[in-house]
């Protein structure tokens, strides 16, 4: 396996990790923004008010995207990693 092959696998792995993290990070950003606006409007500065909804949103989005995430990871391993290990 040459250096170019290693770089290609690493680049593809980083792209897959970005695709896997985007839904969770996006929803967490939106929930944090909404909670921050609510806190600013009501002058309530409670730390658990930001933590609990974010964690709930992360769990819901993770559960909802679990199937597509698994498909991406399995496809990456079947298309990129396994053929290189097998020497193909």
UniProtKB/TrEMBL annotation:
Protein location: Cell membrane
Keywords: Cell membrane, Cell projection, Cilium, Flagellum, Membrane, Transmembrane, Transmembrane helix
GO BP terms: protein secretion
Spans through the membrane: 12-35, 55-77
Gene Ontology cellular component terms for the protein in this record: plasma membrane
Membrane topology term: Multi-pass membrane protein
Keyword Cell membrane attached: yes
A Pfam family it matches: Bac_export_3
Keyword Iron: no
Matching InterPro entries: Bac_export_3
Domain of life: Bacteria
Protein family per UniProt: Belongs to the FliQ/MopD/SpaQ family.
Name by which UniProt lists this protein: Flagellar biosynthetic protein FliQ
Species name: Rubricella aquisinus
